[in-house]
Amino acid sequence: xxxxNAAPVSLSxxxxxxxxxxxxxxxxxxxxxxxxxxxxxQEHFIFRSQYDVDQAAQGSFDREIVAIDxxxxxxxETVVTSMLEGF
Length: 87
Known about the structure:
By secondary structure, this protein is α+β, with helices and mostly antiparallel strands. The protein is 31% helix and 45% strand. It is built from one helix and three strands. A hairpin with a 5-residue loop joins strand 1 (3-11) and strand 2 (17-31). The longest helix has 27 residues, at 60-86.
């Protein structure tokens, strides 16, 4: 992972975040461990997911984890597809 950010995309009338967007940036490299030869790489994966902020603030962390889980699933699927297409 080369970057992570969670930023508000929607604010209430009082200025509190109502919706956040999580952005994960990653670089992936597949290397032959014996020879050290780079077999495949992708330098710029960017994944995003948004979630509503619980105004009670107790569930916000849980919702961020769910958003990160969605990103992780999409990331894994995209990496596998990109690798298979790249060979």
